[in-house]
Amino acid sequence: MDKAAAAQGQSVDWEVLESAAVAAMKNAYAPYSKFAVGAAALTTDGRIVSGCNVENASYGLTLCAECALVGNLHMTGGGLLRAFYCVDADGTVLMPCGRCRQLLYEFRAPDMELMTTQGIRTMDQVLPDAFGPQHLEETR
Ligand code: THU
User: Fold this and answer.
1) Ligand 1 neighbourhood includes 33 CB (under 6 angstroms)
2) What are the tens digits of pLDDT across the range 68-119?
3) Sequence-ordered list of residues with C-beta below 8 angstroms from that of 100, at least 6 positions apart, any chain
4) Which one of 5, 38, 81, 92 is CB 3.0 to 4.6 Å from 21, fit for a cystine?
5) Residue 95 Cα distances to 13, 84, 116, 140, angstroms
6) Catalytic residue list contains 66
7) Of the candidates 82, 81, 85, 93, which has an alpha carbon nearest to the alpha carbon of residue 117?
């Protein structure tokens, strides 16, 4: 059994993820929107990765917190995401935007769960019928 398979069904400490997301949010660079965001995720091998939003004077170049999170995932050993939590400046749960759902989809573990405003949801629930790497393989 590979590591990802072994980690399947691994229990998630949502409070730890919430704290990591809040800590990440405190590093946000959001002078334009004034909307700080922090995201944190548990990897299948037990690491916590996180990120904050980083805005730009050229507004459209803004990087969402999830962009930093997936960069952090790769900088710290890669792997897959088991659980995800995103917060705003008040520490309130935030839904990842559509583009970020796609970013997260790429690195989802089969049993990935997300904390949402509606409670815990699967990746398929927040991004049904997603386009992914599997579609590129089908056309080759
Ligand atoms: N933002 C994120 O960081 N992640 C999301 O999923 C939603 C939006 C940021 C981008 C921008 O800096 C601010 O929130 C307002 O849109």
Assistant:
1) yes
2) 999 999 999 999 999 999 999 999 999 999 999 999 999 999 999 999 999 9
3) 64, 65, 66, 67
4) 38
5) 19, 10, 6, 34
6) yes
7) 93
